[in-house]
Design goal:
Number of helices: 16
CATH topology of the largest domain: Growth Hormone, Chain: A
Shape: globular
Strand content: under 5%
Helix content: 55-70%
CATH superfamily of the largest domain: MFS general substrate transporter like domains
Order of helices and strands: HHHHEEHHHHHHHHHHHH
Structural class: mainly alpha
CATH architecture of the largest domain: Up-down Bundle
CATH class of the largest domain: Mainly Alpha
Number of domains: 3
Strand order of the largest sheet: 1-2
Number of strands: 2
Length: 570
């Protein structure tokens, strides 16, 4: 048997840069270590973030609107920093070393966070449970730790899902079929971690101490690092392809330099390397597409292009390089429609929690009280319920009707999730209307917890969980599949920035709404005591924006052109 038969056809290597043995590496043999790493990392992340808005409000003594903004700004940063990690992974380090290095930063940040809630001197001084007076230094240490975590997660988030998908060879029909299933089970593992975080760790924070509440996530992150390194010998690694931003700029510059050059009718005349592989490390050639034809000018050969010598990529680009830019441009409208969904999704760790604070948190007639942030467990349970249903029932059934190997296309899947998210906001708004009617009817304005049980929030969490399975998993797979080979971390980071911008958008909406509705000494929609507020208006606002967003998505999806790499299976 020829040596090439033992290796993947897409040029993957092991962690030392040697060709990866296809029989001994990758596939489901490597994935348990990646999935285990993600489960522990998400347990750490959600363990410290699920209840963070309450830490801001009660331990750092911040007003409701300030606590909400700080929480959403930090959450947004956690989904912006992946652009840094993605650039380093695609251009220089590769996904393996990027995950490894940023994990160390992550562990350091989590450790400092635990110390800021434990060590005397940097721990906020509290007179009672909800009456604290932190110094500027104490607040500063906490925020430094918090943003170290944001930096650390920036190297992991854009790489882990792509790294798992890298373990499956697109040129192998059996492996390619497993890749779609990987994304479902990868997201399943995220929610196992989130389940433990939103139940056990939130309870620890509310009933034991914040020190243990942040310390356990730090230990979980250390375990995540051990999981990752344990699978080192089994991983397949894509070679970094150099700076993707440089390549994109080269196509733009070359296109404008040749703006008056006509593109030949026969697209086979466009410039491409003669080799079987493209001239971009770690990337296969990509078939030419008809849309965005202006950029095809960058691949038109002219007399001034010395193709027999060293080609100047700022004057002449390959078809594959041009298609990289086209792929990114085509992704941007789809990417933009994820921002409103992310704003809806962010309410689980913000206004949903503060809404739950004002409801009866006792479980039945017992003295046990469920922390408001723990209601996110029903979002997690919803995901855990729907992932197997989708993978084992919905996909086979819809496949019979559509003929598509995955049952639904990635865009169809995402659209269904956007539709479901509208109902999540409507249900949350209706619940708040009912709650406020009870407040007025029985004069519960100054009551810390009104008699209405917090479990009325379950439907809104469950609906968001269902929407996640369709939209967020669909986005994970879509942005990986439609990304150029050498830009997969970058495009995964691009998908994550929708969550960042969704948090920032929600924060901006809170700021605008507060500025407009709290004029002339009015309390506004989102006061410190929500019994005097109108957060149902805010939920209805998000529902209206979601309807408009769905309409835009359907128009964009109708005209989308899917990427096709040379030699891959459809």
């Amino acid at each position: 048997m020829a040596e090439s038969d033992f290796y993947t056809k897409d040029g993957t290597v092991d962690h030392k840069g040697n060709p990866a043995n296809i029989k001994k590496t990758g596939t489901w043999k490597a994935c348990p270590f990646i999935i285990g790493n993600e489960c522990c990392e998400r347990l750490a992340y959600y363990g410290m973030s699920s209840n963070l808005v309450r830490y801001f409000k009660h331990q750092l003594n911040q007003h409701t609107s300030v606590a909400t903004r700080n929480n959403q700004n930090w959450s947004g940063t956690c989904y912006i920093t992946p652009l840094i990690g993605a650039f380093l992974a695609d251009a220089y380090l590769g996904r393996y070393w990027t995950i490894a290095l940023f994990s160390i930063i992550y562990v350091f940040g989590m450790t400092l966070l635990a110390m800021s809630a434990t060590v005397h001197g940097i721990k906020p001084r509290c007179y009672t449970e909800d009456n604290c007076d932190p110094t500027v230094t104490q607040s500063a240490v906490f925020f430094v730790a918090l943003y170290l975590v944001a930096l650390g997660t920036g190297g992991i988030k854009p790489c882990v899902s792509s790294y798992g998908a890298d373990q499956f060879d697109d040129t192998n029909e059996t492996e390619k079929k497993h890749k779609s299933s990987f994304f479902n089970w990868f997201y399943f593992s995220i929610n196992i971690g989130a389940l433990i975080a939103s139940s056990v760790l939130v309870w620890v924070q509310d009933n034991v101490s914040w020190g243990w509440g942040f310390g356990i996530p730090a230990i979980a992150m250390a375990i995540a690092v051990v999981f990752f390194f344990s699978g080192t010998r089994l991983y397949r690694n894509q070679k970094p392809g150099g700076s993707p931003l440089t390549r994109l700029c080269q196509v733009v510059v070359a296109s404008f330099r040749k703006c008056r050059v006509a593109v030949p009718a026969d697209k086979s005349l466009l410039y491409e390397t003669m080799d079987a592989e493209s001239n971009i490390k770690g990337s296969r050639k990509v078939e030419h597409t008809e849309d965005l034809s202006f950029f095809d000018k960058a691949a038109v050969e002219t007399e001034s292009d010395d193709i027999k010598g060293t080609v100047n990529s700022w004057k002449l680009c390959t078809v594959t390089q041009v298609e990289e830019l086209k792929a990114v441009i085509r992704l941007l409208p789809i990417w933009a429609t994820g921002i409103i969904f992310a704003a809806v999704y962010s309410q689980m760790s913000n206004l949903f929690v503060l809404q739950g604070e004002r409801m009866n948190t006792h479980v039945g007639n017992s003295t046990f009280k469920i922390p408001p942030a723990s209601l996110s467990i029903f979002d997690t349970l919803s995901v855990i319920f729907w992932v197997p249903i989708y993978d084992r029932i919905i996909v086979p059934v819809t496949r019979k009707f559509t003929g598509h190997k995955n049952g639904l296309t990635q865009l169809q899947r995402m659209g269904i999730g956007l539709f479901i998210s509208i109902f999540a906001m409507v249900v949350a708004a209706i619940l708040e209307l009912e709650r406020l009617q009870e407040v007025r009817r029985h004069n519960y304005y100054e009551v810390k917890e009104m008699p209405m049980t917090i479990f009325w929030q379950v439907p809104q969490y469950f609906l968001i969980g269902c929407a996640e399975v369709f939209t967020l998993i669909g986005q994970l797979e879509f942005f990986y599949e439609q990304a150029p080979d050498a830009m997969r971390s970058f495009c995964s980071a691009l998908q994550l920035t929708t969550i960042a911008l969704g948090n920032y958008l929600s924060s901006l909406l809170v700021t605008i709404v507060t500025a407009i509705t709290a004029r002339n000494d009015k309390l506004g929609w989102i006061p410190d005591n929500l019994n005097y507020g109108h957060i149902h208006y805010f939920f209805f606002l998000l529902a209206v924006l979601s309807v408009l967003n769905l309409g835009a998505f359907l128009l964009i999806a109708k005209w989308y052109t899917y990427k096709k790499a040379v030699g891959t299976l459809r």
